[in-house]
Design a protein that fits this description.
heterodimer; A: alpha/beta; eight-stranded mixed β-sheet; 19 strands; about 20% strand; B: alpha/beta; four-stranded antiparallel β-sheet; 11 helices; 12 strands
Chain lengths: ~500, ~325
């Protein structure tokens, strides 16, 4: 692999969960909805976002634990979303995953030793890759000829002077004395390799090595996970993920369930392991301070999309996307790098079954572009936005049976509630007559049970370019991109807008 | 702010009796909360912060028992079995909103239950008040939402509903046990804003229990740091953050990633939080303390004033009677 080639390239990846039964006509959940980025060898890419933003699904899809609906994940020139058989197993050996909850990700009926050894057993590890200089036929159990150019072979056999000269890779729990090599002469000699240790014994020694590496004493090999604290269990999870010597590890919220003092030790361990073993990390977390500490670059996810991606310090000190601004400003206390006031987002993310048609963040954006033809104060816009969200939420909620019956017999059930909600939202706002009429029309639709149409009507009349166009990634600097329409020079910038609106509120 | 504290906890001891041992989960905890202020209780898991919170409401279950100490609410000791007289004056918000709401009742039913018991409201008057409470906690479209079931609300909305339930008792003190830990950071910001707003409007006192120093920094006026069942430091929040006096507070603050330069290793605390099975006869932090000296293993430290200020730390480093040379 050359240095300038990324370890993993994700291109336009989509993962949809479709529970579309015959009766169930719901659209699929768009957990990952068109994501592209590279992971460079040896780096830590942080992946942040709220729960439900698709972080975990993205990580799992890259590893092949979820089936990609569309797009590619390219490693070594192959699309790994579409592998089977031995190719798939070989990809699985190159990747590892550490899960969030150490309470649930370890089998309590297995000893720590068995847990760490399990991937080794499952992959019949080791099959020793042997490099022989010169032409030779290779014989023996547990061995295979190394690919030419492979510089990480397990055994190297030199044939100079008729005597075989054997070296064993340091990381293996094998010494030269465990390996016997005999050579039968001839123009193409036959090299027979026999290993004195059984596969099981090698696996066991490997498990001991791994425990030592993650800082667990060897007697823990025989104990059960429930005998350990959360931090120790997470160390076991890390040892298991590293068993097959992966070069790429997805860490899914590895420290979220731990106390800060324990968390600090695990973060330090992960940094040490990365330096010692040359690992590449995809570090998924919702704690932005943890990611800032450990990640070289950061990808910010919202509703299945990566909205901003760039070098960690650049993004933290000068966030480009309004969602990144909101996230950073929401970090409590002095750990927040955002110097302006806290930008509190309203509401919750929309359903990934029914994402907004334009910019995914449009429904909550503090810097949303407003239409040119209507000049309203920001607080009135927010009230109108909120009313639209009320319609959308009502449209999605399953109607209670009693209510459906009342509606069928012609009772006005929604009416009274709705009037109250509308008056709460809009009573102290001055709306121009045309806008007032639009609201009245929408209410009429909702009263007739057409909540979705009411929301749509509001969107058509009060929406803007943000509701229509999906922004393209715009380059902010070297390898730094953000997807927001405000990056177009025609519009006022993101942070200026947010500052002005917070004053206006 | 009145001079007399609304709630005053003195030398509270909660012991859990198991077959093998007695666990002193809360071991001599004292603190005050005045009307309208937010007091933080910060510590790691197993430090006894949740047990402290539950004991304020008389919610400690067997095998746990309050063995000693006082919990004075407006001067009256609740541990003399006075909880029922003050039910509703102190309300609690738990960490996980989905566990605090009953899935088979509507949100409205659950709020109205509190209104019926504590304020005698029934029928449409109760529904009306429940809607007002949901609006107060910032739930949009409250007239509709009042008839919805918990699963129809998002996590943030559920926690708002739980807060509305707590407010239905018209409490003077709200005990919040990790109220934002299960929530995303943007939702956490919303809930912290909401608590601050409610406090301003209702002059609520809040006891905020958390492991998150950032939350402590944003939301509290004063803070108690708890370790292995004991309050080890007590200080105004900004002073604690500027200058933690107890070695444990210092270590805890140091291990937070946001306070260390990204390329540096995080300072750590070696070892584990001990389970206190005996009354304290030494400093419980001494085995992990970088500043520990011989005396620390022999004396259970009392709270001492730090540099002549109002803040205190239970550490021999601040004890003037311990000779400089012995440290």
């Amino acid at each position: 692999m050359t240095d300038d080639q990324p370890l993993v390239s994700v291109r336009n990846l989509r993962t949809y969960y479709d529970d579309g039964g015959i009766v169930d006509r719901d659209p699929p959940v768009r957990a990952v909805d068109g994501v592209s980025f590279d992971v460079d060898a040896g780096e830590t890419l942080g992946l942040v976002g709220e729960s439900g933003s698709g972080k975990t699904t993205l990580g799992r899809t890259i590893l092949g634990l979820e089936t990609a609906t569309e797009g590619r994940v390219v490693a070594d020139g192959r699309d790994v979303t579409d592998l089977s058989g031995e190719e798939r197993r070989s990809w699985q050996r190159r990747v590892g995953m550490v899960f969030q909850d150490p309470e649930e990700s370890l089998n309590d009926r297995m000893t720590v030793g068995e847990i760490v050894q399990e991937p080794l057993t499952a992959h019949d590890w080791p099959t020793l890759r042997v490099a022989v200089d010169g032409d030779a036929t290779l014989r023996g159990d547990m061995v295979t000829r190394a690919d030419p150019g492979d510089d990480t072979t397990d055994l190297t056999v030199g044939l100079r002077g008729g005597e075989a000269d054997v070296t064993v890779r340091d990381a293996l729990p094998l010494s030269v004395d465990d390996v016997t090599v005999s050579v039968e002469g001839g123009p193409t000699p036959t090299v027979s390799v026999s290993v004195a240790k059984s596969r099981g014994a090698i696996q066991r020694d490997r498990a001991f090595d791994l425990l030592e590496r993650v800082g667990l004493p060897e007697e823990h090999f025989y104990r059960y996970p429930h005998q350990f604290s959360g931090g120790q269990r997470q160390r076991v999870g890390i040892a298991r993920a590293l068993a097959l010597e992966p070069d790429f590890v997805v860490l899914d919220e590895p420290v979220s369930a731990l106390d800060v003092s324990v968390q600090a030790r695990i973060i330090n361990l992960l940094s040490d392991l990365q330096a010692q073993l040359g690992l590449t990390y995809l570090f998924i977390a919702h704690d932005l301070s943890v990611v800032r500490h450990i990640a070289d670059r950061i990808a910010v996810m919202y509703l299945g999309n990566v909205v901003e991606l760039g070098p960690t310090e650049s993004v933290y000190t000068d966030p480009a996307h309004p969602y990144t601004v909101s996230l950073l400003s929401a970090i409590p206390g002095s750990a927040s790098p955002w110097e302006g006031g806290r930008v509190t987002l309203r509401g919750t993310p929309p359903s990934p079954r029914d994402p907004p048609s334009g910019c995914p963040f449009a429904t909550r954006c503090p810097a949303k572009i407003r239409p040119d033809d209507l000049d309203l104060p920001e607080r009135t816009w927010r009230a109108l936005d909120e009313l639209r969200v009320v319609f959308r939420t009502r449209a999605r909620a399953e109607a209670a049976a009693a209510e459906t019956i009342k509606r069928l017999v012609g009772l006005d059930v929604a009416g009274r509630d709705l009037d109250e909600t509308v008056s709460d939202l809009l009573d102290d706002h001055d709306l121009p007559p045309a806008a007032r009429e639009t609201v009245a029309e929408a209410i009429e639709m909702a009263r007739g049970g057409a909540d979705a149409r009411a929301a749509e009507h509001m969107r058509e009349q009060f929406g803007s370019v943000c509701d229509r166009d999906r922004p393209d990634p715009s380059e902010r600097g070297d390898g730094w991109t953000s997807e927001c329409l405000r990056h177009d020079a025609d519009y006022e910038g993101v942070s200026e807008t947010i500052a002005a609106r917070e004053d206006d509120r | 702010m009145s001079a007399d504290p609304l709630l005053s906890v003195r030398d509270l001891e909660v012991v859990f009796h198991t077959e093998r041992e007695r666990i002193h989960a809360v071991d001599g905890v004292s603190f005050d909360i005045r009307a309208g202020e937010t007091v933080g209780l910060v510590g790691e898991s197993g430090s006894g912060k949740s047990v402290t919170a539950r004991s304020l409401l008389g919610l400690v279950d067997a095998p746990g028992r309050i063995e000693a100490g006082e919990i004075r609410y407006r001067g009256e000791d609740l541990t003399d079995d006075n909880w029922d007289r003050h039910r509703g004056d102190i309300a609690m918000v738990f960490q996980d909103p989905s566990n605090s709401l009953n899935p088979v009742y509507t949100v409205g039913n659950q709020i109205e239950e509190g209104l019926r018991i504590h304020q005698g409201l029934r029928g449409s008057a109760a529904t009306r008040r429940a809607i007002e409470l949901l609006e107060d906690v910032g739930i949009p479209d409250a007239p509709r939402r009042v008839d919805e079931y918990p699963h129809q609300l998002s996590g943030g909305m559920q926690q708002r509903a739980v807060i509305a339930m707590a407010l239905a008792c018209d409490p003077d003190l709200l005990v919040c046990d990790e109220p934002t830990t299960a929530l995303d950071v943007t939702i956490q910001a919303q809930i912290l804003d909401l608590l601050a707003e409610l406090q301003r409007e209702e002059d609520l006192a809040i006891l905020l229990i958390t492991h998150d120093m950032g939350v402590i920094e944003d939301a509290t006026d004063r803070v108690n740091v708890i370790y292995a069942g004991e309050v080890v430091e007590r200080a105004p929040t900004d002073e604690l953050l500027d200058y933690p006096a107890h070695p444990y507070s210092r270590a805890l603050l140091g291990s937070i990633p946001g306070r260390t330069a990204p390329d540096e290793r995080l300072p750590t605390i070696e070892g584990e939080v001990p389970t206190p099975t005996e009354p304290a006869s030494s400093c419980r932090f001494a085995p992990r303390c970088p500043k520990a000296f011989d005396e620390c293993e022999a004396i259970a430290p009392e709270h001492q004033r730090v540099d002549g200020t109002d803040r205190t730390a239970a550490c021999l480093l601040h004890d003037p009677t311990v000779e400089e040379g012995e440290r």
